[in-house]
UniProtKB/TrEMBL annotation:
The chain crosses the membrane at residues 7-29, 35-54. Pfam families: DUF2842 (PF11003). This is DUF2842 domain-containing protein. The keyword Membrane applies. It comes from Aquisalinus luteolus. Keywords: Membrane, Transmembrane, Transmembrane helix.
């Protein structure tokens, strides 16, 4: 598969997933204690976690093209 096509497919998967995740994070933030230290830890953790489910998609997008993929 063409690298540009792979990146387009990855983008189509990535953007909606990231927007949904951000909505979930902000919604959950309404239920955590109202203290700056709690918010700091929460957003650091949640700002890091998003990458793990999307890591396979990013790896697939950036994998070199093999003769077998065509």
């Amino acid at each position: 598969m063409n690298p540009r096509t792979k990146k387009l497919i990855g983008l189509i998967l990535f953007l909606p997933a990231l927007l949904i995740y951000a909505g979930i994070v902000v919604t959950i933030a309404d239920y955590i204690p109202n203290h700056w230290a709690v918010y700091l830890v929460y957003y650091i953790i949640m700002g890091t976690i998003w990458a793990f489910p999307l890591k396979p998609v990013m790896a697939w997008m950036n994998r070199p093209v093999d003769a077998e993929d065509d």
